[in-house]
Amino acid sequence: MKKILLLVFLLSISLNYSQNRKEFFKSPTGLFLIASDLHIHSVFSDGRVWPSIRVEEARRDSLDLISLTEHIEYLSYRGDLNYDDRNRAFQIASGMIQDNETLMVINGSEITKPMPPGHINAVFIKDANKLNLYNKLNIEDGYKAVKEANNQGAFVFWNHPNWIENRDDGIARLDSIHNVLLDENLLHGIEVVNEQTYSEEALEIAISNNLTIMGTSDVHGLIDWDYPKENNMHRPITFIISKNRTKKSIRDALFDRKTFVWHRDMLVGKEENIEPIIQENFQIKSMGYYKKILTLRLINNSVVPFKLKYQGNYTFHHRGPVFEIPPKDHLDVTIKTLEILDEISMDFEIQNIIIAPKKFLAISKTLQL
Ligand SMILES: [Zn+2]
Ligand SMILES: [Zn+2]
User: Fold this and answer.
1) Which ligand is nearest to the CA of 195?
2) What's the CA-to-centroid distance between 335 and ligand 1, angstroms?
3) Would you tell me how many other CB atoms lie within 10 Å of the CB of residue 320?
4) What is the CATH T-level fold of the domain 21-264, as seen in this structure?
5) Strand blocks (E) in 7-63
6) Fewest C-beta in 10 Å: which of 99, 192, 276, 331?
7) Options 3.40.50.2000, 2.60.40.3090, 3.40.50.10090, 2.40.30.110; which CATH number does 278-368 get?
8) Mean pLDDT, range 113-142, rounded to an integer
């Protein structure tokens, strides 16, 4: 009897986790979109919450993957907490995860040096204590800590290269140490989105150096304070396009640069990553003709609005060429096709989906009528 009760209890926990999960996007067949935040803090460096709160927040936000990336060098509660084991935040957070739960936790750290090189995150590390061997605030220890993270098989990305405490003009730019790290393949990604900020210059650096595009919350307080849901806000999320829902596959996808980022009402990612996702989430259905006016239903299955600019030659009966389909919603448009067609191609630019600085995703849909 006790066993049955335990089973029912465990089942109800797992149902709770899965039932309330948000579907951000429809995934193309055979792929998983892993919703991640790989830059967060707890009291085990300078954050203001216990690691368990990070796990609860991630569950509420339907995330699949988090990493508590505590600063190696900045520890705010030395008098109150034992910081001897730098893996402690990871141990507490990962210890909360149920066997059948979707959320995963990986070990990580923020290597925190003055600029250059600035702050650098290492995730999928094996032992944060070994990074602490290189905790002096200089370039040399920055290089050595990054090297050690790489020796552990870590995925390493440059944090907030646009941070105004480091770059007073807010412009992300490479110093010579960054070029060394890039040349030696020790740096694999870059934050294009950090907290509330978006950096077109970081996006340019990502594209020209073939780095993985990252977006993170870098949260120190509570997620709901930084991103109040009543204001329709959400933390930045990096979606990792993975072949499987395993840590190995997710790590491979990060190294393969298979990501895109959701920040405010926009998506940022390389065209080859983001185009198949949008093809899957943007559908057009014919609602038929009245006289020679065709009605098309434009359907958005995603959590972002689609801010569309029509690129073709037809004109619309009720609208101009620019309109928006709200998230998880649809919009009917009427088109003057001049004659009754049996096939139509519709070309759009989506102006809140960014594939390079000042460049928007173009999408083409052909349908039989
Ligand atoms: Zn930082
Ligand atoms: Zn940070």
Assistant:
1) 2
2) 50
3) 9
4) TIM Barrel (3.20.20)
5) 32-40
6) 99
7) 2.60.40.3090
8) 98
